[in-house]
Amino acid sequence: MFGIGSTELLLILGIALLVIGPKKLPQMARSLGKAMGEFKRVSSDVKRTIDAEVDRVERQERQDRAKAELKPEDASPRTETAASTQAAAAKPADAPADSKNA
């Protein structure tokens, strides 16, 4: 516990007994225990909040990378040619053709 051995702990308790007095020592120990419990609770809340935020940021980065991989950077000319061919093939048969002979 905090790197304090049993001898050091007894010395600290003895000095506290002399300084605070035997009547107020239990009350001070209770107050110290409550303060330490509150500190542990707050520190665990802060840790949980930080972990949640880190997880959220990592998840957002993964989503951004996935979207970037799925989104094509530039449409290649071959793709544009294929798209125009498909559009021309989709025209109805009775529509006039785009040729000079017709």
Given as residue ranges, the uncertain stretches (5+ residues, pLDDT < 50) are: none
State the major sheet.
none
Number of strands: 0
Return Rg in Å.
37 Å
Total number of helices:
3
Helix/strand-derived category reads: mainly alpha
The dominant shape is: rod-shaped
Mean pLDDT: 81
Write down the secondary-structure element order.
Answer: HHH
Fraction in beta strands: under 5%
- How much helix, percentage-wise, in residues? over 70%
Instruction: Give the N-terminus to C-terminus distance in angstroms.
Output: 96 Å
Task: Tell me about this structure.
This protein is mainly alpha-helical and 102 residues long. The chain has a domain at 33-68. The protein is 73% helix and 0% strand. The chain contains 3 helices and no strands. The chain has helices spanning 6-20, 25-70, 77-89. It is rod-shaped, with a radius of gyration of 37 Å.
List the defining traits of the structure above.
single chain, 102 residues, mainly alpha, 73% helix, membrane, protein transmembrane transporter activity, TatA/B/E
